[in-house]
Amino acid sequence: MPLHINTPLLESRPLSLAAGRSIWLKMDALQPPGSFKIRGIGAACEHHAKAGKRRFVSSSGGNAGIAVAYAGRRLGMPVSVFVPETATELAKALIRQEGAEVIVHGASWQEANERAMSALDADTAFIHPFDDPLLWTGHATMIDEVVAEGLSFDAVALSVGGGGLMSGIVEGLARNSLAHIPIIAVETEGAASLADAMEAGQRVQLPAITSIATSLGARIVSERAFEVTQTQSVDSVVVSDHAAVEACLRFLDDHRVLVEPACGATLALAYSHMDALSRYNRVLMIACGGATASLAQLQAWHTA
Ligand SMILES: *Cc1c(COP(=O)(O)O)cnc(C)c1O
């Protein structure tokens, strides 16, 4: 049995009314560790466990670290998550709650990641948060589930950080003979490494991440994500942090599910960026979730 669950697929009445077209939600916010990441990370961890690895290491102080911790607990494997001093108390608590060890090291992710790399040995599998084909194959199960339910759709809207989710959705579309379906790739201002790469015609490194949507905070997208934009129809949309947070709060009222701004960015297409959907009649939105934002935090961002 895989480590992820088969999530609900809902036609959202409130989002459809707001957007003026049919909006379907793949509710991966309801995965046990709170985000879609367990699909790919669960698949990768199972792969490494079968191959004889005895321990997992992650350097994500966000949903990837939480997903590795969850997978390790389920598989009975010890997990160490190296996080920078900037990691939130909530994220660290969620990782520890899964029984994993949290090692705080360095001012930024780069330093935490270097320390994680120095902790690897032959028995240890390092689980990357987005740049690994094993992850993409796992994320692709989202599209398998949607297709199995018989839904047809004319676009997929999703959030982009390092591009693992997008790479996985593209793989899922391809293996279901849907490679022609366009992707709407959403980022926030200050984390728009894909939009910048598409504009420049090559991958570019952002000088810093300035968005509150830290789960989208990859300074450079993966090679695979950029390649997808060259071979597939990808519309890039960038929304403000404010629009993303507002979408989270409206979504909480509309669907009674709390998600991070990383997910709110995609939901904001329905609430405040309908123009980005104007060419489509039935849009599949990946409600990717995220466990690291509390209601108090969303409200504080909203009034900031
Ligand atoms: C990781 C994450 C993303 C971005 O996924 P990438 O594979 O890095 O593009 C979006 N939303 C949430 C909630 C995430 O945890």
TrEMBL record:
<keyword id="KW-0456">Lyase</keyword>
<dbReference type="GO" id="GO:0006565">
    <property type="term" value="P:L-serine catabolic process"/>
</dbReference>
<dbReference type="InterPro" id="IPR001926">
    <property type="entry name" value="TrpB-like_PALP"/>
</dbReference>
<dbReference type="GO" id="GO:0009097">
    <property type="term" value="P:isoleucine biosynthetic process"/>
</dbReference>
<protein>
    <recommendedName>
        <fullName>L-serine ammonia-lyase</fullName>
        <ecNumber>4.3.1.17</ecNumber>
    </recommendedName>
</protein>
<comment type="similarity">
    <text>Belongs to the serine/threonine dehydratase family.</text>
</comment>
<feature type="domain" description="Tryptophan synthase beta chain-like PALP">
    <location>
        <begin position="3"/>
        <end position="289"/>
    </location>
</feature>
<dbReference type="InterPro" id="IPR036052">
    <property type="entry name" value="TrpB-like_PALP_sf"/>
</dbReference>
<dbReference type="GO" id="GO:0003941">
    <property type="term" value="F:L-serine ammonia-lyase activity"/>
</dbReference>
<dbReference type="InterPro" id="IPR050147">
    <property type="entry name" value="Ser/Thr_Dehydratase"/>
</dbReference>
<dbReference type="GO" id="GO:0004794">
    <property type="term" value="F:threonine deaminase activity"/>
</dbReference>
<dbReference type="Pfam" id="PF00291">
    <property type="entry name" value="PALP"/>
</dbReference>
<dbReference type="GO" id="GO:0006567">
    <property type="term" value="P:L-threonine catabolic process"/>
</dbReference>
<keyword id="KW-0663">Pyridoxal phosphate</keyword>
